[in-house]
Structures are given as C-alpha cells and as structure tokens.
Amino acid sequence: MAHQFSLAYLTVQGCPPPEQIEIAARTGYDFVSLRPIYMGLPGEPNYALAENKELLRQTRKALADTGIKLLDIELARIHDGVDVKKYLPAMEVAAELGGRHVLSSIWTSDRALYTEKFAELCDLAKPLGLTVELEFVPIASVRTLAGALDVLRSVNRENAGLMIDAHHFHRAQDKPEELDAVPRTWFHFVHLCDAPAQIPTDREEMTRILREARLYCGEGGIDIAAIVSRIPAVPFSIELPNLARVKELGYEGHARRCLETAKAYLAAHPRPQAICCA
Question: Does the keyword field hold Isomerase (predicted)?
C-alpha cells in the first residue's frame, strides 16, 4: 500500500489555509492538516474559518480545485478553565470540509478535569463523524505514552484516538515496543519529523526545537522506523517546523523537501510484513 501524506500547519506556520492547500497539491501531498482554532500565540495569524466566511469560501474552493483532502484540524487544547464547547464551530467547519480528526493535547495537571473535558470533547465530535486524537507533548501536562493511554482508557470513547508524534515520542523516552499493547483502532495518523538524538534538559531549548527547529527525516537521531513499524498503515502528517529552512527555501520549497526526505527515509526503512496487534 502506498503511503499517504498530509502537510501539517506547523510545517508552513503562518501560511493561510488556501495557500497551504495549493502548496500541498503542487508538492505531492494527499491531505492537509489545518489550524482553524486560533490559539493566540505571539505573532500567530488568526485563521479561524468559522469566523471568517470569505477565508472559509476560499479554503473550500482550494480543496475542491486541487482534490486535496482535509485530514485533521488543531488544536483543541485541554487546560484549566477551558470550555470545550468553544471548539465546536471549528469542528463543524472541519466536518463540512470533509475532515476526519481533531487534534488535542492536555495542559492542566488536574486529572479529573482533563479526563472530564477530553470525554466531553469526544462527545461533541462524535455526531460530526470526527475522532479526537490525543497527542502527548513533552512540554505539556500529559507528556508520555503512559499518560495518554491512561486518559484514553479512562474516557472509553469509541471516537478517541492516539496520535504519535515522532519528536514527542523520542523526547518522552518511550520505547517503540510499548506501542504493541495499544489497540490498533486507536491509531489514525502519525506526525513525522526528525530531531537531534540528544534530548535537551532545558525546557526553553526543548520548546525551541519543538516549535521551530525540527529536522528532515533521516537528518537527526530519532529511530523513526522503529516507531512507525509498530503502528498500522495510517497517513503520515509531516509536522516539521523549521524557520531557517522556510527562510531559505520558502514555504513550498520546505514542504517539498519534507515530503521528499520522508519518502526516501520510508523507502530505505520498509515496514515489516507483520505488525504485532493488540
């Protein structure tokens, strides 16, 4: 089966959705992963499609004209004081555009709160035909595979999933064989990227690499093949923010290089014929 790839927002962060879709089409991707949930980060443009009807129209047209599909939207964060209903307009837009998944992560240490709110988010997404994918992040509150699995088992929602990011998996020092115990139905897509093998001990440096200095597949020290070989054949969303490469190559050049290097890496590390099932 041929691999399928999505161009994730952070790879071309700051790029408007219609342009991101057109770049994905020109460079050979199958999907895009958009950010129509405004996070209010410094310098972040607001691409909240539910609030900008003209941008939504342009995005819808770009998808129709190019044949690119919407894989997922981000980021439905669970944090102290969050009302997850605020994510509903973005999820409704995602469903309207043919999207499949909503990416979420947890930024509060209150286990009772994040379990309740993640379950509520899944319940809001279910009538829309969307899954909610929990991503553990090394600078967030749920930062390891074990933490994410605890949430998924606790909420017990059929539309809840686990999203593995190669960078985060490596930084969490999780072991690929631990993925064998994860139900296969929890995997819907994977984030691909590389990074230096040495794990930063400084949070600021960890954050800098995570947000702006990830590497092309095969360029760093993550054993990406060991991770993806334990996961069923699902789309690869290339989330590879690298501000220096974007400055050098432009959005399109960087997106193309991301895809070329990912394909070359996967071709050099073919998936085993049999994958252990849970």
Answer: yes
- Identify which of 214, 38, 87, 210 has the alpha carbon closest to the alpha carbon of residue 138: 210
Cα-Cα-Cα-Cα torsion 85, 87, 93, 98, nearest 10 degrees, comes to -100
Q: Does a cis peptide bond (omega within 30 degrees of 0) precede residue 75?
A: yes
pLDDT, tens digit (0-9, with 9 covering 90-100), for 7-63 = 999 999 999 999 999 999 999 999 999 999 998 888 889 999 999 999 999 999 999
The architecture in CATH of the region 5-268 reads Alpha-Beta Barrel (3.20)
pTM confidence score: 0.95
DSSP class per residue in the chain: ----EEEEGGGGTT--HHHHHHHHHHHT-SEEEE--S----TT-----GGG-HHHHHHHHHHHHHH--EEEEEEEEEE-TT--GGGGHHHHHHHHHTT--EEEEEE----HHHHHHHHHHHHHHHGGGT-EEEEE--TTSSS-SHHHHHHHHHHH--TTEEEEEEHHHHHHTT--GGGGGGS-GGGEEEEEE-B--SSPPSSHHHHHHHHHHB-B-TTTSS--HHHHHTTS-S-PEEE---BHHHHHHHHHHHHHHHHHHHHHHHHHHSPPPS-----
Helix 111-125 and helix 88-96, axial crossing angle in degrees, nearest 10: 30
The domains of the chain are located at: 5-268
Query: CA dist 174 to 97, 137, 167, 218, Å?
Result: 35, 12, 11, 19
* Percent of the chain surpassing pLDDT 90: 94
Q: Which amino acid is at 89?
A: P
User: What's the CA gap between 95 and 48, in Å, rounded?
Assistant: 14
Nearest to 227 by CA among 179, 184, 272, 266: 179
